[in-house]
Design a protein that fits this description.
This protein has 242 residues and is mainly alpha-helical. The protein is 85% helix and 4% strand. The protein contains two helices and four strands.
Length: 242
């Protein structure tokens, strides 16, 4: 806006300077006219004084009187001419003043129009900036919501993976416990078979040494528990005999 208005302002300043110089020139001309008029009046006064001084001489006084009248007529004519010229200058000054006032009003009107245009552009720019800020804020909120949704989705996926991993671990643990139990059951079964075999062998030996079964050794059952060293699970075994 400043670059657009500056040439017009420079032109108006140049015109204003020209008018000021013209006004000063006219004032100087008026001063010169007044000075000339004063000189004429002074000259007239000097002549009049000389005429009055020479009035005592008859012939010279008469001649001086005629000359004084002629000069007075000339001075009055010049005075009228000066007054007419002064009136013309005053009229010209008034006309120029009116023209200057009209130009000033036109300049002010142009300034007001330019200011209105500038204000309209500023308001439009502010509106565009406001809309842009609103779009940026909306995009920011949308990105934030998308980020939160993605974070929730990642958290849900992580929880699902953890749940699946926990389920897999639980299933693996249960499978391991089953295998341990199966091995333990198999070991207990073999142990029981060995005990039965020992019992049978002991019974055979006992029946050979003792005719009466009342003196045969008795087998006393007892409870026995074991703990898995891998999963720290206590496993109850079958009843054993001693």
């Amino acid at each position: 806006l400043t670059q657009a208005v500056f040439p017009s302002q420079e032109k108006e300043v140049r015109k204003w300077k020209e008018e000021l110089l013209d006004q000063r020139r006219r004032m100087m001309e008026e001063k010169l006219l007044h000075a000339e008029f004063k000189r004429e009046l002074q000259l007239q006064a000097i002549v009049k004084k000389a005429q009055e001084e020479e009035a005592k001489v008859n012939e010279i006084a008469f001649i001086n009187t005629l000359e004084a009248q002629n000069k007075r007529h000339d001075v009055l004519a010049k005075l009228n001419e000066y007054e007419q010229r002064l009136n013309e200058l005053q009229e010209e000054r008034g006309r120029r003043q009116e023209e200057k006032q009209a130009r000033d009003e036109a300049v002010q009107e142009r300034k007001r129009a330019l200011e209105a245009e500038r204000q309209a552009r500023v308001e439009e720019l502010l509106m565009r900036r406001k809309e842009q800020d609103a779009r940026i804020e909306q995009q920011k909120q949308e990105k934030e919501r998308a980020r939160e949704d993605a974070a929730r989705e990642r958290a849900r996926d992580r929880e699902e993976r953890l749940a699946a991993l926990s389920a897999a671990q639980q299933e693996a643990m249960e499978e391991l416990q089953k295998k341990i139990q199966m091995k333990h059951d198999e070991s207990s079964r073999r142990h029981m078979e060995q005990i039965e075999q020992r019992k049978e062998k002991a019974a055979e030996l006992s029946s050979g040494r003792h005719a009466n079964t009342d003196y045969a050794p008795k087998l006393t059952p007892y409870e026995r528990t074991k703990q898995c060293s891998l999963c720290n699970v206590v496993v109850c075994t079958h009843k054993m005999y001693s």
